[in-house]
Amino acid sequence: MKYLVLIGDGMGDYPVESLGNRTPLQAAHAPAMRGIAAAGKLYQLHTVPPGLPPGSDVCNMGLLGYNAAENYTGRAPIEAAGAGIPLQPGDVAFRCNLVTVREGRMVDYSAGHISSEEGDALIRAVAAELEDDGLTFYPGISYRHLLVWHKGPESIDSQPPHDIADQSVTPHLPVGDRAAEIHALMERSKAILANHPVNQARAAAGQEQATQIWLWGQGRSLQLPSFQTLYGLSGGVITAVDLVRGLGRLAGLETPVVEGATGFVDTNYAGKVEAAKQILAQHPYVYVHVEAPDECGHMGDAALKTQAISDFDAQVVAPLWQHMEALGEPYRLILAMDHRTPVSLRGHTDEPVPFVVLDGPVGVAARQKQAPFDEAAMLGAPEARSYELMKNILQAVQAE
Ligand SMILES: [Zn+2]
User: How many CB atoms lie within 10 A of CB 6?
Assistant: First the structure.
């Protein structure tokens, strides 16, 4: 038995007026997803355990078959694993964004999607001033960096900057034990960045400047039992983002780097499909994650999100379903999303999302049928929680 899990990050949404009061999933050209819905079993899936934030980290954990309620320590430690940064006992990892705050408002959580080269120079300048015995900054991609703080504050409630777009930052500063130390670092970064040549050049070019760092998503290192131990399956995770790669690494799964995988609508879909086929040639399990619909949701762009879903259908779902059918072996295909990223909110919600599991091969005739795969169609379907459902799906066949 082969297992293929296909995830369109943040595909779920609400009806959008500019789409004729349809959701992006309903408006998209998605014959492959609707074919899988017709041939498979539809669920109404709850992906966010009570009390946890509706982040891609928590939601992908459940879809991978891990209990986030038991294992989750924060977003940054997962990204650290994805970037290969080791955490020692007592270390607390923070996500460190370069952001644009103007007149006290969060103008841009990404400092204008600053380039990696510019971001690297700015984070190194911040590190040169702020690093001491306990603090280490790790430059990452674009605006996304990490801070590892030995014996740093961890009983903290912090806010993702992408969830407070255009809002006043003061009410959203980290709160909790030793929060003042975090505020101080963020405050001190302002003067370091203010007159940095990279920012001067960006201002001259009419681009957003990185005005400060924003620390969030903190947590201690986490260990996950290996996927092999839990489910008796080897395999891999195909993704462009460190967060999901980190989960794959922590699960002991292969995480090949796909050239040209950007996490956006210009990603190398064909390369991701090829990488998934290579994993399946050697292993029984592969998890394919596509980030673009989520990014379009955060941009608030309904048309682009609809296009991203159509592209996911045509360039990932269709060829991989065809591949599984052509192999002629028994397989189980899961089609899902981790959460909704409504374009009207430009952030995540914790409402349920559609989910399908299909046992194949189903043959040519069955593949011609179509059924809706969207937020309305799932309302009549059985409800389930992602970790519990995936655990059953992954173990059911093992037990037979
Ligand atoms: Zn997500």
Answer: 25
> What spacing in Å lies between the alpha carbon of 363 and ligand 1's midpoint?
32
Per-domain residue ranges for the chain? Answer: 2-72+224-399, 91-220
Inter-residue contact 40 to 356 (CB < 8 Å): yes
Q: What burial class does residue 14 get, using C-beta atoms within 10 Å of its C-beta: 0-12 exposed, 13-18 middle, 19+ buried? A: middle
Ligand 1 centroid to 385 CA: how many Å?
16
Distance 187 CA to ligand 1 centre (A): 30
pLDDT band at 387 (very low <50, low <70, confident <90, very high): very high
Residues 79-98 have pLDDT tens digits of: 999 889 989 999 999 999 99
Nearest-angstrom CA–CA distance, 41 and 395:
17
**Tokens matching residue 23:** 């959701």
303, 22 contact by CB (below 8 A): no
Question: What is the average per-residue pLDDT within 53-57?
Answer: 93
The CATH class, in words, for 2-72+224-399 is alpha beta
CA distance readout (Å), 314 to 308, 321, 329, 386: 10, 11, 23, 25
Q: What does the pLDDT look like over 288-346, one tens digit per residue?
A: 999 999 999 988 999 999 999 999 999 999 999 999 999 999 999 999 999 999 999 99
Distance 130 CA to ligand 1 centre (A): 32
| pLDDT for position 398 | 56
Residue 280 to residue 286: CA distance in whole angstroms = 7
